[in-house]
C-alpha cells in the first residue's frame, strides 16, 4: 500500500504475469525484483491518495519531477489453507 503525503507522483502498473523483461532477480530479503517492461497503466497520485498493489501486480513507483513523501506498507498475506 502506497499513501502519498506530499508532492505529486505517478505510479505505473502492469500484471506481473505479462512482464517478460527481468532486469534483476527476485530479492527475498528486500521482497522485490525489477522488470524492464513498460507499464500498461499510469496512476496519477496526489497528496492524500493511496494505491494498493497485490503480489500479482508489478508497479513502478516514484515517477515524479519533484520530491515526494509517502508511506509504504507491506502486508504479509498468509497462504490459503484447505478448510
Characterization of this structure:
With 83 residues, this protein is mainly beta. 0% of the residues lie in helices and 48% in strands. The protein has no helices and 8 strands. It has strands at 2-6, 9-15, 22-27, 32-35, 41-45, 50-51, 57-63, 69-72. The strands form 3 sheets. A 3-stranded antiparallel β-sheet has the order 6-1-8, with no helix packed on it. Strands 5-2-7 form a 3-stranded antiparallel β-sheet, with no helix packed on it. The chain is globular, with a radius of gyration of 14 Å. It starts with a strand and ends in an 11-residue tail after the last strand. The model has no long low-confidence stretch (mean pLDDT 92).
Quick structural summary:
This protein is mainly β. 0% of the residues lie in helices and 48% in strands. It has a three-stranded antiparallel beta sheet, with no helix packed on it.
Keywords:
83 residues; mainly beta; three-stranded antiparallel β-sheet; globular
